[in-house]
Design goal:
CATH superfamily of the largest domain: P-loop containing nucleotide triphosphate hydrolases
Structural class: alpha/beta
Strand order of the largest sheet: 5-6-4-7-3-8-9
CATH topology of the largest domain: Rossmann fold
Bound molecules: adenosine-5'-diphosphate, magnesium ion
Helix content: 25-40%
CATH architecture of the largest domain: 3-Layer(aba) Sandwich
Largest sheet: 7 strands, mixed
Number of helices: 13
Number of domains: 2
Number of strands: 9
Order of helices and strands: EHHEHEHEHHEEHHEHEHEHHH
Strand content: 5-15%
Shape: globular
Radius of gyration: 20 Å
């Protein structure tokens, strides 16, 4: 795994994470909190002065989220189609919520383990996974790996595929995950799942445990049919389980400004799922998203101030917070 103590973010990106605060407000807070930039003075390039993860967390916590009481919410990124961007968006949302000062546990629930490799876990690692936790062979705390301050992870590997058989034989087979993980809820502001692209029992378990299901879909007309099936399946599932639907967000991804099919898809999404959409919001296609996962560096650690990927992810996080009733109060005055 990467040593994240060398990494941090700039004042300008902090200003964006705080909900588009003035850069000067952040710089006054940096002064007030007496924060020292990373690296040796002689190595610092003036435009690229960065602050450590702990400092960023502490500053943002005080500037933007001081009035926020812990949400203790379970989020999932879901779609039974692969390649829509679930893992990419889950990775960024989890990483940046932790940078904003929240306590986050992110759980890889896909045996393909792309989320785990984005955090720098070897795909053949032999650490425990959700399989061992639900199987009861280890306690959940033994499966949790700290990634950086505010961010813990339960990684996955191919062994997770065996969970389907285990779950199938258990009573309350759609509720095992909730039963085992519910005791963790008070410890974290957010427990976040990346799901596998199938209709699996594990995904059913995640649906039962989620307070907010984020459905990531591509902005292509053909993705709408799949989305319709997915929604119908979800409605039926919760009805059969005699559970209320959780909150749902549809997150259109890979939007392209000059593409007529992107625009068409957005129009259709707004028409069919108005209550699940964040008005005109979509995550735009951007190379930064690829680069980020490949280098195991969440956007805030390398993105330029004008990165559209960073802007979109931060906007999404603020929309999620507001959907969950978490009000962000900025402290302009020091
Ligand atoms: N907004 C985006 N811009 C550019 N590439 C993206 C974007 N979102 C996802 N991708 C790319 O699409 C591919 C599939 O994304 P991934 O997150 O693995 O999807 P899923 O988890 O739904 O299978 C990856 O190569 C990823 O880098
Ligand atoms: Mg994935």
């Amino acid at each position: 795994m990467l040593d994240y103590t060398k990494y941090g973010t700039t004042q300008k990106l902090m200003a964006k994470m705080a909900g588009n605060l003035n850069n000067s407000t952040i710089s006054r807070w940096v002064y007030k909190l007496n924060l020292e930039p990373l690296g040796k003075t002689e190595d610092r390039v003036i435009k690229n002065i960065r602050y450590s993860i702990e400092d960023v967390r502490s500053l943002l916590q005080q500037v933007a989220f001081a009035e926020v009481s812990s949400p203790h919410k379970v989020l999932s990124f879901y779609n039974f189609k692969g390649g829509t961007g679930k893992t990419s968006i889950c990775y960024q949302v989890s990483s940046h919520l932790a940078l904003m000062g929240f306590q986050v546990l992110v759980i890889d629930a896909d045996p393909q383990a792309h989320l785990s490799t984005s955090y720098g876990f070897d795909s053949h690692h032999e650490r425990p996974t959700l399989y061992d936790v639900i199987n009861g062979t280890i306690g959940v705390s033994d499966a949790i790996v700290p990634v950086y301050p505010g961010l813990d992870c339960i990684p996955s590997n191919l062994a997770l595929t065996r969970l389907e058989v285990t779950l199938n034989d258990l009573p309350k087979r759609e509720e095992r995950l909730k039963i085992v993980l519910e005791p963790l809820r008070p410890k974290y502001d957010f427990i976040i799942f990346d799901t596998n692209p199938t209709i699996s029992l594990l995904n059913r378990n995640i649906l039962v445990f989620s307070d907010l299901v984020n459905i990531v879909c591509e902005t292509q007309p053909y993705s709408l049919n799949g989305l319709k099936l997915l929604m119908e399946d979800m409605v039926r599932f919760y009805k059969n389980m005699q559970l209320d639907m959780p909150q749902v967000l549809v997150i259109p991804n890979k939007y392209e400004d000059r593409s007529s099919s992107s625009a068409e898809a957005m129009t259709a999404l707004r028409q069919y799922y108005p209550s699940y959409m964040i008005s005109d919001f979509a995550i735009r296609r951007s190379e930064d998203i690829n680069t980020s996962a490949k280098s195991s560096l969440p956007l805030a650690f390398f993105a330029r101030t004008n990165s559209i990927a960073f802007e979109d992810i931060i906007d999404l996080i603020h929309a999620v917070l507001s959907k969950l009733g978490t009000k962000v109060v900025n402290k302009e005055d020091v």
